Each structure stands twice: as structure tokens, then as C-alpha cells.
Amino acid sequence: MRAKSIKLMPRGSNALNHSFMMAAMMTSRNSCQFNYQKIFSQTYKRLSTANGQVAIDPIATSKRTVLVTALVGLLLTGCQSTPTNDLTNIAAYQTSTRPNDNRNLDQQEIARVRTSLAAQYIRKNELDTAQRQLEKAFAADSRYAPAYDMMGVLLQQEGSRLNLEKADQYFKKAITLDKDFEQAHNNYGVYLSQMKRYREAAEQFEIAGSALGYEGRIGALENLGRTYLQLGDRSAAAKAFLRALDGNRNSIIAHIELVDLLLEQQRVPQAQRLYDETLILVQGQGISPRLLLQGIKLAAAQNNITTRQQLAQQLLSAYPLSDEAKQLKTWLNNPEAPWK
Predict the structure, then answer these.
(1) Number of C-alpha atoms within 13 angstroms, CB side, residue 310?
(2) Range 18-247 has CATH code 1.10.630.10
(3) Dist. CA 292–CA 234, nearest whole Å
(4) 36-66, pLDDT tens digit by residue?
(5) What is the spatial distance between Cα 145 and Cα 60, in angstroms, rounded to a whole number?
(6) Core-most of 48, 181, 331, 333, by most CB within 10 Å?
């Protein structure tokens, strides 16, 4: 295997916003992250302007006026949108699958606007403002499932013991109101994983990952695989990651996790092929310590001393305090020992 010159990932670039998990594909195995689905509807992504501020007009007496006023306020001042990243497979926030059940459409639309505004405030960590928007969403339509899902995300992000306990009930309420609301199943799974309730989390991810047509399905399957890793079920994890690859060959998370699983099984040629694909997928983004360590393991397994030494030098110089660097130093002190 010819030695490769690999661009390093800038320091700090693998830091993740916990509230809306983007892909954590390049973090250490010890940092098992899960994907929230993006919580901004396509409708409000189109309402962006340069200043990125949000205006909330007072509630008018006419229900129709309320809706028009809220939407006009958004059009005039805009909601800051989140840049998309095709590699993360994160879909637009789902706004429920249930029919209107003859409820007042104006009230439901108000709830949708308030929920979308709350999403923007959560992303900026303005949690008190977000909470007020969600209370207004509940007041407008007490059966609007996305508002309950969003409140669960908000409470989870705040992170105190009391709010984490409350979050559970909001996620359950969202699913009760709309059992086909795959977004809520995925987000509830993320919550359950954080609470180390992995078997329950796997059930939620399986529901979301089996929903054909759901835009966040691949992310749910990636979450499912990582949950099985936490449970120590490597066979089930591999199957979940393979399902993710079947759905999207560009899934970086599935690539990286499968490389490790194949290395554990000493299936080096297959691991090398997936590793090479991964390097193509992350081209221009830099390379993480985890990918560097995988390259070192592959080079060592194929007795490619030049590549192994080059990648080891890159890892130790760029990420000297990383867990991967510690693993490498341990192995260098005893090359005959298995990787830990």
C-alpha cells in the first residue's frame, strides 16, 4: 500500500452541537454520538434574510389575522436557517403525519409557526424564549405533535435532572398523538441513549429506520447501529450499518463503524476498501484521529511500514492528547499485543 498524504482535520472541528447532532463520524470510539434530525422545516428555511432576526407580532383577535401576521412577520425579518450538509443525511424537520382531524387550520398553522420559531431559538441556545414559543404552540393547538417533540428536545438540551425527567413525557406524548411521526421516534431514541436506556432506544431507532420514505431514515439506522455497539451486539450493529449503506452509500458513519468491525474480524481487504471509500467521502474536510488510527491498523495488518509510520507521526503530532494517540503509544510499546 503506497503511503498517502492526508489532510488533517483542524483542531476543534469534531466538536458537536449536542442539541442537534450532526454526524459524529470522526470522533473517538469512546464518544458514541447520535443524530437528531434537523428541526427546521423547508418552509421556514426559505424565509431567511441577511439579518437572521425573528419578529414575533402580538396575537390579534382574528384567527386569520393571527396567521397572516405571524407569517408576514417571518417574511419581513426572516428566520436564520441552518446550512445543510449532504454527507450527514439529516432531513428537514418533520411536521407530523396526521391529518388535520377537522381542527381549525389557522390554529394548527400558528402552532407550526411557533414550533419552527422555537427550533431557531433552541439552536441559538435561547431556551427560555424557545419555551415561551412552545407554550404558545400548545395554546394554539394542544394536539400538535411536533411541539411536544420539540419541547422534549429543549428540555434534554437544558440537561438538568428535573428537565431530563420531563423530556421523557413530552417525547411519549408526541408519539401518542402521532404514532407515524418518525422524527419523534428518532429523537426519543437519542434521548433514551443519553439516559443509557439502550434497548428502549434501539426500539425507537428501528421504527424510524424501517419507515421507507422518511427522509431521516439513514440517520436513524446509523443511530441504531451505534446503540447496538453500546449493547455489545456487534452482529446487530453491523447489520444496521449495512442497511444504512444500502440506503445511502455516502454514509460516513456507517463506513467508519464498519471498518472497525471488519478489522476486529481480521477481514482486512474488505476493511481497506471501505476505508479508501471513507477517505474519498471526507476529502477536503480533513481527517480525524479515529481515521488516522484506522489507517495505522490497516497498514500494520498489511505490513506496510512506510504508511504506518507516516500516519503514526501525523496522529502523534496533530492529536497528541487524543485517545487514539494513547492507544497507538500502548501498541508501539508492545506491537505483538492486540489493539485495545
Answers:
(1) 15
(2) no
(3) 22
(4) 554 433 333 332 333 333 333 333 334 434 3
(5) 24
(6) 181
